[in-house]
Amino acid sequence: MTVPAERVRDPEWLLHRYDAVGDAFHYVPANRALRESAVFLTDAQLAGAVRAPAPVRRQAALAAAGGQPAPLKLILHSAFCCSTLLARAFEVPGIAHALKEPVVLNDIAGWRRRGGAPRDVAARLGDALHLLGAALPAGEALVVKPSNAVNALAPAMLALRADARAVLLHAPLPTFLASVASKGLEGRLWVRELYTKLAADGLCDLAVEPTDPLRHSDLQIAALGWLAQHRLFAGLVDRFGSRVRTLDSATLLARPADAVGATAGLFDLAIDAPAIAAGPAFTRHSKTGTSFGSGERGAVHDNARATHGEEIALVERWAMAVAEANGIPLGLPGALL
User: Fold this and answer.
1) In this predicted model, which residue has the larger pLDDT, 95 or 68?
2) pLDDT tens, residue by residue, 275-307
3) CA-closest candidate to residue 34, choices 56, 13, 61
4) What is the pLDDT of residues 319-333, one digit of tens each?
5) Rounded Cα gap, residues 95 and 142, in angstroms
6) DSSP 152
7) Do 91 and 136 contact (CB within 8 A), yes or no?
8) Residue 166 — φ and ψ, nearest 5°?
9) Alpha carbon distances (Å) from 18 to 22, 72, 148, 278
């Protein structure tokens, strides 16, 4: 049973899921404070809120939302590159509201993989982006950091919303591989799961031997996923030009005020970049909230290299050869800084 569409414009509720069978969006009671404190907007992070979903028929939701969507800013990423940190920097009440990995976008990406008609998938994607910002105060921009499992929809998001601007954030390949290695079995399983989704989205058509992914190591699979997303990002710059800019995590951490200021410029948002760069977004761990700066991040990677250095170095050299064979630039065009 659906509920009144007033949920759509209620700031105490969050658009959480999309039900393709019932063509309805599901809302959950999650106010701004809860959304801000959650690492990601997943069932686990939203705690008990997801136990009482309120379904709203799609057409009713759109009617309640009105016709003018909030300005859309995107933080697209290829994982382990401080994207959550950057999203937290743009949680600025009165100016912008940041949503970190809203699951509704994962639902639409999953529906696409299950065979959803492209025209219908695009329509629901546009609807979700509109509805995610429907409850924002007038004048606030919507900053969305999707899961990178949604990256295949990035071209559609930018094509559907001419007002959208995007930062394409990535870690340098050696840093990415060290991050995966530092996370142990959990990280290795995760990159295989991600590769499966990227491949289902048609992003992993790479000239590589052997062709069977099962014959590659975990870090090789991680590198292939990184390369697939790198190629996608390069294509976005080529297609959308100045609407998208690229940024690597090393530059973000080395020059936080400059990076936040340049991102704010791209997003056309008036914020105090130096103050934000000196604040908790850059001085506390984005997942745990504990004190955590660039030194601690570097120590994590150094420890991973100390344990897995030979494997990381071998995979890095192999990935560079794969990149060259497939015409994938390791240095992305359209740099923000």
Assistant:
1) 95
2) 999 998 888 766 665 655 666 777 888 887 887
3) 13
4) 999 999 999 999 999
5) 9
6) G
7) no
8) -140, 140
9) 9, 20, 18, 38
The confidence band for 12, taking pLDDT boundaries of 50, 70 and 90, is: very high
End-to-end CA, the chain: 50
pLDDT for 289: 59
Q: Which residue has the tokens 């690492």?
A: 39
Question: Would strands 13-19 and 244-248 be described as parallel, antiparallel, or unpaired?
Answer: unpaired
For 88-103, write each residue's pLDDT tens digit. 999 999 999 999 999 9
> How many CB atoms lie under 10 A from the CB of residue 15?
30
For residue 3, the model assigns a pLDDT of 63
Is the previous residue joined to 210 through a cis bond, with omega within 30 degrees of 0? yes
Domain ranges in the chain are 171-337
Farthest CA pair distance, the chain = 59
Q: Tell me how far apart the alpha carbons of residues 333 and 283 are, in angstroms, rounded to a whole number.
A: 29
β-pairing, 72-77 vs 24-29, is: unpaired
Using an 8 Å Cβ cutoff, are 88 and 2 in contact?
no
One-letter amino acid for residue 150 of the chain: V
Distance CA 249, CA 273 (A): 17
308 pLDDT tier (thresholds 50, 70, 90): confident
Phi/psi of residue 197, nearest 5 degrees? -70, -45
User: Residue 318 is encoded by which pair of tokens?
Assistant: 């192999």
Distances (CA, A) of 5 to 19, 46, 69: 16, 22, 17
Spell out the residues 6+ positions from residue 58 whose beta carbon is closer than 8 angstroms to its own.
23, 24, 25, 124, 127
Specify the pLDDT at position 283: 82
